Structure formats: structure tokens, C-alpha cells
Amino acid sequence: MDSSDPDIVFDEQGVCNHCHHHDRRVAQIPAFAPDARQQLESVALRIKSSRRGEYDSIMGLSGGVDSSYVAYLAHRLGLRPLAVHFDNGWNSEVAVRNIENIVKKLGFELQTYVIDWPEFRDLQRSFFRAHVIDIEMLTDHAIFAALYRLAEQNRIRYVLSGTNFATESVMPRSWLHMKADLRNIKAIQKRYGTVKLRSFPTMSIWKLAYYQYVRGIRSVSLLNYIQYNKTHAIRELSEQVGWQYYGGKHYESTFTKFYQAYILPTKFGVDKRRCHLSNLVLNGEISRDAALAELQKPLYDDSELAADRAYVLKKLGIAPDDFEIYLRTPGVPHSDYPSDESIARRLIELTRRLRSA
């Protein structure tokens, strides 16, 4: 990590706040407790006993390594989750094959939630016009909204999540925005969009609170119950379910690859490899020298970049000249538009205090 994170702070030993944050969070997860195995079995039993219909849980399945390993772990634990794939129009062929292999070999039922493409395209174009950094919050928001909605419809109390502290604790706050900020999404769409949001899955922070505290739906990060190692997970998935790697974190989506490997570094000066590699260093999977060497490699092969750029711009209906203007225009903070982030963070902190009391 470096000063591309404007909030980075180093102590007198030269250790940054991200390392301290990682150490604190990892020390709190069940995976490193003496009774880690018992805790994992206990949460699996709790999920199984909550079953009131055909499924005991629900999980998003993107074809990426984290969600795929959650599916694999759920199978090993004997859970019966409903697998849901959110198709936003940007799936890579590798991701599609991974999903097909997982549900077939693990015996899970798959439900594909297909987004209304003209509506979603208009939303993405609005976020381009707004010049905010987290264009990907649209997909993340819709995934969570769809999962909770389907959980309620199917009387499911547990959402299996691929989030984990071991490989995701390092992430500067300025590099993204709160995914549940529906007010921010609606404000940007109202200002720059050309269509009304009719079918796009949404969930306000108040709706999330309803799901969690009234309907009793809980998110469970299964990967925090094991000593999760991404390198080992990739090897195991490849051997057991024929899973195939796609080249980078979240590169199972063509748009995400172009966004992370080209838009972010070109427009915002952000190379997300820094945080992804930092997490792997802190998790003991690679050395710091190996990570620094990886950062010296180009983000994109020239011919691959040209092909992806042409594909993304054509699919979004953005003229090349307009895209160049977009890249040269300074970014705008999400907070320049109406937002519920400050309220949500206070609610999260209050919930954390109540649970620890």
C-alpha cells in the first residue's frame, strides 16, 4: 500500500494502519479460536435446524473463487443452500462454466436472476456521468437486495456470504462506497439517468434492518470459520469441481476486469492489486517481494485491452471520444450526491455495541 490511499497512516515502526486493522480483525474471527472446528459445526447445525422449506440457506454464486469455495464448504457441511447467480450482462465464459460445474457436481439447485439490461446499462451510464469511483456498487447492491428478497420469499433465515477478513481486510474507504446506499444510487440516477428504476433490485438501509431484525435473516461468513487460504482454495476447487481461474480478483466479470484494471488506475489513480496483494501477504500466501514484483507487471495486455475497451464501450453505448473525456475529468466523491452512508455507519456501530454488551 502507498499514498494512493489518502488515509494511510504509519506508526513509528513503519507499519501501516491496514496491517494493524488486519491483525485485529483476524484475531477476532472463529477460525483462529481453539474450538474453531466446533464453532463451524455449531453454525452448520444452526443453519440446518432453521430449515422451514426446501432450503436451509441461500448463497450468491458468481463463479469467482470466494463464492465458489463457500458453495464447496456448504456441500462438505451438508447444507442445502439455494444457489443464486446474478446475471448483469457482463459474465465471462469462464465464470459461466465454473457455475455450471459447481451446481452440477455439488448437486445444488441454481436460480439465475437476470437483470433488465437496458435499465442496468442506463444506471451504469449514470455513474459514468456522475464521475464517482464505485461503479461496481450497483452490482453489489443488487446482488444483496436480490438475495435477501429471495430469502424472505423462500422462508430462508441464512445468507451464506463469501466475505472474509483473511483475504479482504485491506481496502481503503476512499476506493469504494457503501453498497447499501440506495439513496446515493437513486440520486445519481435521478440526475443523470434516462429511465426510471422499475425492476432493478434495491434495498435501503431501513429495508436491510427490517430483513435482519424483523424477519430474522442473518448473513453468515463461512470463510471466517476456517483458516481460509485463497491459493489452497483455488487448487482444491480445480481438483474437486473442475473450477478454472480467470486471471484476477473479480475478473469473472468482463466489466469488473475493465473497471479495475483500466478505469480505476487511469482515472482515479487506484491500482486495486495493491490491496489484493497486501491481503495475500498478510495471510502468508505470498512474500512482500513477490507482491512488489507482481505490481511491476502491466495491468493489461495491449491487445486484450483494446478488445475489452471496444466491447465495453459498444455494449454501454459510449462513444470513444466521450470515454476519453470521461477519463480526463477528475473524479467526484459519492458524498457530493445525497447519501445515507453516515446514518448507516452510525447504525452499524450501534449494532456492534449492542451485540458486544
Question: Which descriptors apply to this entry?
Answer:
357 residues; alpha/beta; globular
| Overall tally of domains | 1
Q: What integer is the average pLDDT? A: 93
Number of helices: 15
- Side-by-side strand order of the widest sheet: 3-2-1-4-5
Largest sheet: 5 strands, parallel
Shape by Cα distribution: globular
Distance between the termini: 35 Å
Oligomer: single chain
Structural class: alpha/beta
Overall number of strands: 5
Please write the string of helix (H) and strand (E) elements. Answer: HHEHEHEHHEHHEHHHHHHH
What percent of residues adopt helix (DSSP H or I)? 40-55%
Gyration radius (Cα, Å) is 20 Å
- How much of the sequence lies in strands comes to 5-15%
Unreliable runs, pLDDT <50, ≥5 residues?
A: none
Write a brief structural summary.
The protein is of the alpha/beta class and 357 residues long.
Fold and architecture overview:
The protein has helices at 17-28, 36-49, 65-76, 93-106, 117-130, 137-153, 182-192, 205-214, 230-241, 254-268, 273-282, 288-295, 302-316, 320-328, 341-356; strands at 57-60, 81-87, 109-114, 158-161, 218-221. The protein has 357 residues and is α/β, with parallel strands linked by helices. The chain has one domain. A five-stranded parallel β-sheet has the order 3-2-1-4-5, sandwiched between helices. β2 (81-87), α4 (93-106) and β3 form a beta-alpha-beta unit. The longest helix has 17 residues, at 137-153. It starts with 16 loop residues before the first helix and ends with a helix.
